[in-house]
C-alpha cells in the first residue's frame, strides 16, 4: 500500500525540477523546502557503484564535518581503570565497565554514540545483536575503538560522524541542520564527498558515484550534480 503524501509535501515537490542542480542551488532549495514545525536536519543520500556483500566493496568510515552537525551527541564509553575517569572528565554522558555492558543488555540505550577501549571489546562483542541494528557497535574503522578516549570524545562532539553504505550500496548521512547557512552546508557536503572519494573501496568497479540526492528531514529529494561538487575546490565550499 502506498502511503499518501501530505498536501505540504505535494506542494514542496512542485518546487523541485527533475534535473541535477548545482550544489549551492540544491542546498538553497533544501533550505527553502524545510518547512516542518521542528528544526530539520540536512540529509544526503548517495548511491554508489558498489556491492557491499563483497568485503572489498564495503564502505564504513568517518567524516569530520567542518561546520559541525548541529546536534548534541550523547557519548557512552565502556572502559576500565583510569580510562573510566578520563572518559567522565572528557565529557562522556554515560561511563562504565562490565556494569554498563550489563545495563545495555537489559535495555539501556540513552546515548547516540558508543566508544570502547580495545581491551573491553571481547565483552562488548556480546552486545552485537543489540547494538548492530542501531549502528552503535564500536569499530576501529569508525574511530570508536580506541585508548585515546579524550580525543575521540572531543572529535565526535565537534562534528565527526560515522557512516556506512547499506547493503544496497547507498549511504544515508546527515550533514548539518537545514537552519545552517547555505555556505556552511556546502562546506560540510564537500567534506563528505571528499571522504567518500578518499575511502573508495578497492573492489569498486566502473562508475563510483551513481547519484546524490539531498533533502531536509521532511522535505522533497533534490538531485545534486556530483561532477560539479567533485570539481569544486575546498575554498569554494568554505
TrEMBL record:
<dbReference type="InterPro" id="IPR005878">
    <property type="entry name" value="Ribosom_uL1_bac-type"/>
</dbReference>
<comment type="subunit">
    <text>Part of the 50S ribosomal subunit.</text>
</comment>
<dbReference type="InterPro" id="IPR028364">
    <property type="entry name" value="Ribosomal_uL1/biogenesis"/>
</dbReference>
<comment type="similarity">
    <text>Belongs to the universal ribosomal protein uL1 family.</text>
</comment>
<protein>
    <recommendedName>
        <fullName>Large ribosomal subunit protein uL1</fullName>
    </recommendedName>
</protein>
<keyword id="KW-0810">Translation regulation</keyword>
<keyword id="KW-0820">tRNA-binding</keyword>
<keyword id="KW-0678">Repressor</keyword>
<dbReference type="GO" id="GO:0005840">
    <property type="term" value="C:ribosome"/>
</dbReference>
<comment type="function">
    <text>Protein L1 is also a translational repressor protein, it controls the translation of the L11 operon by binding to its mRNA.</text>
</comment>
<keyword id="KW-0689">Ribosomal protein</keyword>
<dbReference type="Pfam" id="PF00687">
    <property type="entry name" value="Ribosomal_L1"/>
</dbReference>
<comment type="function">
    <text>Binds directly to 23S rRNA. The L1 stalk is quite mobile in the ribosome, and is involved in E site tRNA release.</text>
</comment>
<keyword id="KW-0699">rRNA-binding</keyword>
<keyword id="KW-0694">RNA-binding</keyword>
<keyword id="KW-0687">Ribonucleoprotein</keyword>
<dbReference type="InterPro" id="IPR002143">
    <property type="entry name" value="Ribosomal_uL1"/>
</dbReference>
<dbReference type="InterPro" id="IPR016095">
    <property type="entry name" value="Ribosomal_uL1_3-a/b-sand"/>
</dbReference>
<dbReference type="InterPro" id="IPR023674">
    <property type="entry name" value="Ribosomal_uL1-like"/>
</dbReference>
<dbReference type="InterPro" id="IPR023673">
    <property type="entry name" value="Ribosomal_uL1_CS"/>
</dbReference>
Amino acid at each position: 500500500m502506498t502511503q499518501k503524501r501530505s498536501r505540504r509535501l505535494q506542494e514542496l515537490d512542485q518546487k523541485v525540477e527533475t534535473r541535477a542542480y548545482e550544489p549551492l542551488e540544491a542546498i538553497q532549495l533544501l533550505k527553502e523546502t524545510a518547512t516542518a514545525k521542528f528544526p530539520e536536519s540536512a540529509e544526503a543520500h548517495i548511491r554508489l557503484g558498489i556491492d557491499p556483500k563483497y568485503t572489498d566493496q564495503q564502505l564504513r568510515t568517518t567524516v569530520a564535518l567542518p561546520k559541525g552537525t548541529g546536534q548534541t551527541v550523547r557519548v557512552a564509553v565502556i572502559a576500565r581503570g583510569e580510562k573510566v575517569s578520563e572518559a567522565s572528565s572528557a565529557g562522556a554522558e554515560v561511563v562504565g565497565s562490565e556494569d554498563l555492558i550489563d545495563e545495555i543488555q537489559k535495555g539501556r540505550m540513552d546515548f547516540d554514540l558508543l566508544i570502547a577501549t580495545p581491551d573491553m571489546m571481547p565483552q562488548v562483542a556480546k552486545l552485537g545483536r543489540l547494538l548492530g541494528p542501531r549502528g552503535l557497535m564500536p569499530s576501529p574503522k569508525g574511530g570508536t575503538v580506541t585508548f585515546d578516549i579524550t580525543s575521540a570524545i572531543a572529535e565526535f562532539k565537534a562534528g565527526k560522524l560515522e557512516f556506512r553504505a547499506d547493503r544496497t550500496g547507498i549511504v544515508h548521512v546527515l550533514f548539518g541542520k537545514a537552519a545552517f547557512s547555505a555556505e556552511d552546508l556546502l562546506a560540510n557536503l564537500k567534506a563528505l564527498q571528499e571522504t567518500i572519494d578518499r575511502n573508495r573501496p578497492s573492489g569498486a568497479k566502473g562508475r563510483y558515484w551513481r547519484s546524490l540526492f539531498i533533502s531536509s528531514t521532511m522535505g522533497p529529494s533534490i538531485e545534486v550534480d556530483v561532477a560539479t561538487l567533485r570539481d569544486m575546490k575546498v575554498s569554494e565550499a568554505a
